[in-house]
C-alpha cells in the first residue's frame, strides 16, 4: 500500500460551536451534508453514498470540540479523519479544521471533496 500523506484544511464557519458539533458528530447531522445516509451502532458509523457503504470506527470525540474516525479499510493503520472545531479566543471566529490522509496522487481530489462537502455544510447552516 502506498504511503498516505496527512493534510489539514481550515474552513471559517459562521455558526456556534454547539450547533456545528451536532452536524459533525451525529448520524442525522452528518447525513445532511457528508453522506446520503449515516447510521451508527455503538462505536461504528456506516456512511452511505449512492448505494455504496463505508464503515468507520469512532476513535474519539469531545463535546462541542472534535470527532475522530478511522475507516474500516484503514483498520490496521494510523490513518484517520478528524473534524475539529476551533474558536479564536480574541475574535470568537469559529473554524472547522479537517485532518485527513490521502495517497499523493489523490491529494488534490481529497481536498476538493472536503471543500465541496464543507460548502454543503455551510449552506445548510446558512453560513455561506
From TrEMBL:
InterPro entries on file: START-like_dom_sf (IPR023393), START_2 (IPR045736)
Naturally occurring in which organism (per UniProt): Aureitalea marina
TM helices/strands, residue ranges: none
Name of the protein this chain belongs to: START-like domain-containing protein
Domain START-like per the UniProt entry, residue ranges: 1-126
Pfam families named in the record: START_2 (PF19569)
